[in-house]
Inverse folding.
């Protein structure tokens, strides 16, 4: 469920909408279509408000812990549609204002978007949508902030009818619109219905009022869920543009038996308007020399932990897992793992000592070593980086083991990667990319 509220151009009109009279021609068929061709420009504001309770998984025969959740977010951005690639829709955005706060179980998380990466490209292919910035790597938190939004080139056409409609007529929202409004990765049951309520005059503008409602069951990143949505949209007939969408929703998280284990209430509100001219950061001149298609470099994610004192870049196929003490783990769906350990300068081992430690461990595990690369310096001053590698069979599994030691004045990092042999060709360069990006960002004290 996408959910929010607040100021919008129709704010006052909504309060008096019940008293607004239908215009004389309201019974006539009305065409409701917005063209999202290349260079379509708009200004957008989205607000989300959430509140609810979640049951956290517990061990066997233990009562799940129930925690409260609240959240608010507001983003305002300018958007320009780019020429589409086959099978994909592309927009470039410049975020102007960003507010994001979420509290789960008494722990509050504030997030934002760094000014240096507030220009983002959003590409929707099939049911997947993810932003990247042509100006630098994004953090996962920055991506999480913009996930509360919807992708209008897919959502708006999916809410509008295929042809002219009369008052009282209904139609089904497209699968793309349902996916955008619910954030479901897979829809199993239900859908959304849109009704043309009629034409009214708001602030001297003729607008078509639409009702959006339905119950949808499916699966998202939190697991099985059921969502009940009820909303209102306004389509400006003069500008031929959907200018307002507000949806209230209930998101029920379900267990394996279909029982509700969490419930979140929310509201999503979006207002849109036309831009007569592209702002400077979305102009032809500004975008001309930028790479606006995703590459291995411009889609890298940034991990920057000021408390731990480590920073690195990693491809999106990897996921940062546990962060315990001075260690950070990364996992890949192909079965690979990477362990990073931050050490003080005094405790950081040399690459040679680290190699001896690893060799001793493998001997205890009775691993069969097929090949070994001795420690080699791959980068010199100001931050020396050494690496070595081993091909081995450990517990009947063939693996590629990659190791590295980064040394800086304020401390260092050891890296240990375990890659299944069948995935080594693809993932070895990615591990090397992560390791080469490592940096210690504060003085690491001895423990």
């Amino acid at each position: 469920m996408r959910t929010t509220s607040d100021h919008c151009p129709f704010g006052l009109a909504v309060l008096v909408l019940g008293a607004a009279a239908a215009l004389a021609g309201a019974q006539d068929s009305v065409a409701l279509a917005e063209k999202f061709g290349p260079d379509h420009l708009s200004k957008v504001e989205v607000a989300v408000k959430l509140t609810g309770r979640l049951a956290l998984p517990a061990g066997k025969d233990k009562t799940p812990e129930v925690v409260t959740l609240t959240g608010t977010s507001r983003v305002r951005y300018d958007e320009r549609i780019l020429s589409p690639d086959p099978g994909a829709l592309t927009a470039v955005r410049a975020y102007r204002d960003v507010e994001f706060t979420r509290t789960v179980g008494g722990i509050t998380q504030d997030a934002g978007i760094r000014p240096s990466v507030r220009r983002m490209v959003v590409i929707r292919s099939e049911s997947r949508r993810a932003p990247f910035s042509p100006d630098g790597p994004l953090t996962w938190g920055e991506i999480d902030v913009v996930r509360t939004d919807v992708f209008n080139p897919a959502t708006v056409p999916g809410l509008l009818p295929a042809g002219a409609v009369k008052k009282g007529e209904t139609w089904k929202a497209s699968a793309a619109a349902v996916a955008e409004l619910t954030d479901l990765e897979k829809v199993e049951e239900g859908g959304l219905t849109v009704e043309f309520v009629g034409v009214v005059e708001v602030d001297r503008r003729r607008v078509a009022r639409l009702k959006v409602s339905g119950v949808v069951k499916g699966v998202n990143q939190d697991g099985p869920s059921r969502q009940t949505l009820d909303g209102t949209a306004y389509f400006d007939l003069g500008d031929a543009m959907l200018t307002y969408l507000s949806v209230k929703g209930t998101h029920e998280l379900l267990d394996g038996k279909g029982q509700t284990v969490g419930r979140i209430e929310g509201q999503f509100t979006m207002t849109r308007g036309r831009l007569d001219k592209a702002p400077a950061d979305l102009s032809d001149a500004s975008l001309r020399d930028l790479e606006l298609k995703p590459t291995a470099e411009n889609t890298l994610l940034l991990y920057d932990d000021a408390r731990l004192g480590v920073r690195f870049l990693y491809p999106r196929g990897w996921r940062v897992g546990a962060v315990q003490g001075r260690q950070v783990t990364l996992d890949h769906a192909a079965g690979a793992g990477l362990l990073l350990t931050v050490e003080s300068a005094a405790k950081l081992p040399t690459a040679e000592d680290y190699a001896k430690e690893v060799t001793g461990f493998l001997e205890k595990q009775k691993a069969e070593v097929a090949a070994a690369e001795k420690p080699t310096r791959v980068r010199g001053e100001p931050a020396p980086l050494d690496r070595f590698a081993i091909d081995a069979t450990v517990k009947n599994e063939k693996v590629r083991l990659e190791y590295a030691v980064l040394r800086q004045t304020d401390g260092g990092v050891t890296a240990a990667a375990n890659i299944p042999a069948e995935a080594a060709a693809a993932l070895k360069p990615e591990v090397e990319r992560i390791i080469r990006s490592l940096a210690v960002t504060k003085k690491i004290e001895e423990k």
Remarks:
- The chain has a mean pLDDT of 90.
- The helical segments are 11-15, 140-146, 152-159, 175-182, 284-287, 351-364, 424-436.
- The radius of gyration is 26 Å.
- The chain is about 15% helix and 50% strand.
